[in-house]
Amino acid sequence: xxxxxxxxxxxxxxxxxxxxxxxxxxxxxxxxxxxxxxxxxxxxxxxxxxxxxxxxxxxxxxxxxxxxxxxxxxxxxxxxxxxxxxxxxxxxxxxxxxxxxxxxxxxxxxxxxxxxxxxxxxxxxxxxxxxxxxxxxxxxxxxxxxxxxxxxxxxxxxxxxxxxxxxxxxxxxxxxxxxxxxxxxxxxxxxxxxxxxxxxxxxxxxxxxxxxxxxxxxxxxxxxxxxxxxxxxxxxxxxxxxxxxxxxxxxxxxxxxxxxxxxxxxxxxxxxxxxxxxxxxxxxxxxxxxxxxxxxxxxxxxxxxxxxxxxxxxxxxxxxxxxxxxxxxxxxxxxxxxxxxxxxxxxxxxxxxxxxxxxxxxxxxxxxxxxxxxxxxxxxxxxxxxxxxxxxxxxxxxxxxxxxxxxxxxxxxxxxxxxxxxxxxxxxxxxxxxxxxxxxxxxxxxxxxxxxxxxxxxxxxxxxxxxxxxxxxxxxxxxxxxxxxxxxxxxxxxxxxxxxxxxxxxxxxxxxxxxxxxxxxxxxxxxxxxxxxxxxxxxxxxxxxxxxxxxxxxxxxxxxxxxxxxxxxxxxxxxxxxxxxxxxxxxxxxxxxxxxxxxxxxxxxxxxxxxxxxxxxxxxxxxxxxxxxxxxxxxxxxxxxxxxxxxxxxxxxxxxxxxxxxxxxxxxxxxxxxxxxxxxxxxxxxxxxxxxxxxxxxxxxxxxxxxxxxxxxxxxxxxxxxxxxxxxxxxxxxxxxxxxxxx
Length: 743
Hints:
Blueprint: H1 3-18, E1 36-39, H2 46-57, E2 60-65, H3 71-75, E3 78-85, E4 88-95, H4 99-111, E5 116-121, H5 131-140, E6 142-143, E7 146-147, E8 152-158, H6 172-175, E9 179-182, H7 187-197, H8 201-209, E10 216-220, E11 223-227, H9 229-245, H10 251-255, H11 261-281, H12 283-288, H13 293-301, H14 304-347, H15 352-373, H16 378-401, H17 406-446, H18 450-461, H19 463-472, H20 475-491, H21 515-522, E12 547-551, H22 557-566, E13 571-576, H23 579-596, E14 603-607, E15 623-629, H24 638-648, E16 649-662, H25 668-677, H26 687-697, E17 699-710, E18 733-742
Parallel strand pairs: 1-8, 1-9, 2-5, 5-8, 12-13, 12-15, 13-14, 15-16
Antiparallel strand pairs: 3-4, 6-7, 10-11, 16-18, 17-18
């Protein structure tokens, strides 16, 4: 599973483990609670999700890397203790408390948090001498004679053997006492995190167009080459800091985080181009609404990857401001609520400074406690510091006004606070104008096209921007989000771009399809048990290393077959318009990937319309082989589907049409009724017309498998029939495989 799903399991497990019944007893006996055991490649966020869960639940977190521990530090040191039992005296060896267990008591003393997570990383990489004690700990939650304190949940993590030579395989007895969660790298899960975490726009847009660079681990004669989610995260922070300090970002710096020379070089080149876009497009002028016509014209002519970078630059400028204003809003609310409580006392003659100062001191202590606990987010810390700063300013306002009580004191406090509010309101108005100006620019350059919709989608994906718009409004966002929701209600097609590849020539955008027409058609377009449900797939001999697209992939069986054929260097992509199909295919994908024996998953599934593959990031000439069966005849616009497949195929590459076709001219009325019934055989066009269409679109056509007769009522297996349209036609139908090569 991906790291987002894993976090959900961790969160729910901790909640369940801490839950108490009406008598105050744990719903699950602590002795029976299984430790969590996350297993996955390095650098995918296993440690990070523990911190996130602790922060969200307001509990503690104590983390240890077990590779740094010896048997003595984990178990404690031996000591001689004297005992007596019914007159019999003896000396025995006992152990001092484990450093790990003792640290929990120290943590509780420092922070006041009595519940939390004890997270032991690299748990399957401990030394030979510590390994038996580690197994005992996982089973009984004790080191020596000392148990984990009540209220603390044990969670562990480790890497699979292929990533670490020092890994010890746990035996069945141990695995049967833990909750093992296998975690895999997943770009989409990381992208959702990156949108809220403020990952630098150059990193985000690079990975949007170079998805295969997100996570890679390879062994080469020169050693390990790898790039991880952690590496991209850390590089993002360093880029942001270097830009703030005016320091360069060069390939040598990138290689310190992205330890794959090829990917590091690709990113370094992209970053230079990204900075050029930043300069050329004059983002501040766009947000101020002072851009010139030449900037709009530049955007209109831009390639897709440049347009993607442009949107990343706009989002990168808007999102941090939005997040910062929301923190300021929370701090203002905190101070406002306190001042409302204190107002009556001050107006009644109470000392304002005596009321404010304890509040300042209390918030400073709480801030220190949060910092000590290690679970406070940066936004929580900023919120607390800003509230303290406002309260301090209000206290000082009384001193400067020479009054500490009564109406004059509160008037001084109110005036100071209103100054903060006024500044905040002005900043909100400025940001609203910037959002409107960004939309005005996008509409001028791209109209109501995909780029504007993508910008809206990315704003929606960011918690800060959606919260800001919900509270303070943005007419342009509201208008475009309604357009987006029209599509999302039906199939979530444009939730976000999964990938955008433009390694070759600049992509030419196909004629736009009518999104409402497609959405209305495919809402009910789920045909079961018909001839199009068959998964024969007559494939060419050599698909190794190819990118293969399966249109109408249903529940993924064909893609699973393709995965083995394309191998570790290839990609198998399945698209379908039925959400349940994609959900089931995705659910089965992990198991199918393991069964291939390949080092990593090479499959992906997307909810999409076959007439419009651009939202998936499939640019011109990005696919080696496309496969479609008779489902083609049931699509909303079959000719548009073929046009789209021609666009995404590389020159000289192959479209496989495994279809039923008619032997003569068709009655259009019969075809339409057959389409409504979901009968892909009876909906088939005339073979001569179909081959002529392929030729017109730019394909050279040859027969790969000779035709055989099929009946119009034929279903997905022998003996199964489907409804047919009433017809007086004399045509017959035959099934065949055509290979159409893009000229």
